[in-house]
Amino acid sequence: MNETDILKAIQSSLNGNSESFALIVRDFQEPLHHFCFHFLGNIQDTEDASIEIFLKAYRALGSYDSRYRFSSWFYKIAYNHLVEVTRRRKRENRYSASVMAQRSDLAERQTPASVFFEREEREEVKNVLQSISLNHKTALMLRYYHQLSYCEIGHIMKIPKNTVASLIKRGKKELRKKLGREEI
Amino acid sequence: MNCFDKQTYLVFLDGELSRRKENRVTKHLEKCQHCRDLVRKLQEENAEIAKLFELHHRIIDQSKQVLRQIDLTDKSDSGRQKFFPRALLPGLRIAAVVLFVSILSLFIFFRKDPAVSDSGREVLVQTANVDGHQVQTHVFGSVDRDIIFIWFEKI
After folding, report:
1. What angle do CA A98, A103, A109 make, to 5 degrees?
2. A152 Cβ neighbours under 8 A, 6+ residues apart
3. Least CB-CB distance to B41: which of A22, A58, A184?
């Protein structure tokens, strides 16, 4: 959906037509799932978080400022929610349990391609991504997977643009080191 | 030849250089093979990073679940919706703060005024424009029972 269609769907939702919100859900559920999974590490928690984030966005639709891209506003809600969930999990010490759960629920959802490519290298990548700093991982993911600008990333993570550039630089360095790759 | 540093090329590839600097970098790359090779390697690294974040499991459609949750939330709010439509909620918070201050002064008003009847007195505290709607805040105070009713009326 382009920004105009999103605005129409938002207006329609605010006028009481909640079905219009379903269009936004379908458009954003895949990138949101992706974003949540790299924070939470397992499908069940990811799907629960996705629903909660969509509900938060729905309730906050009245405060959306159309001068900014909807995706920035939406990712910010998602990021705030995921940081809160991650903090709560650390306090409850649930992180290791949910990483263990990842293996069993992934097995149910694997596509034929993923089964074919499931090698030790992929396992190593998963472990590396889980071990790098959350801020580095978030900045790298938003930039190179979700293709957001430094300005948008800064708005989502509530940091200045220069700090985004710095996080990306340090994140790449940390990734290279953990993957055993040489500096370019 | 004045080559730029690696960080400049990284920011160039991210599309975050100023227009002027981007033009200078582009012009330099047209002449410098060494820097073109460096930029190509950095581009490959960026593509690898994007691949690292790819997921390979199926993502289910959650739109129906989300709508169901929205319907459940709307039903439980429906009694309040009549008086507190969702769009008014942000403005009502501000109105609540103003009202708190107004009620404090009303207590003094009721106590001091001997002309207040035993059945109490209704006062229109404030008319405010909240998200395009005119909202009146009314207070009724019963002096003998010390009961106060507060309600909001959308005009």
Report:
1. 110
2. A69, A71, A72, A75, A142
3. A184
Ordered DSSP codes for A55-123: HHHHHTGGG--TTS-HHHHHHHHHHHHHHHHHHHHHHHT-HHHHHHHHHHHHHHHB-HHHHHH--HHHH
Nearest to B148 by CA among B138, A61, A159: B138
Chain B residue with minimum CA distance to A110: B57
State how far the Cα of A133 lies from the Cα of A59, in Å rounded to an integer.
Answer: 31
Half-sphere exposure (CA, 13 Å, Cβ side) for B131?
A: 16
Minimal Cα distance from A137: which residue of B?
A: B53
In whole angstroms, give the CA distance from residue B70 to residue B76.
10
Q: Which residue's structure tokens are 């582009």?
A: B26
Mean pLDDT by 10 residues, chain B (155 residues): 90 95 96 95 93 87 89 65 53 77 70 52 74 79 70 80
pTM above 0.80, yes or no: no
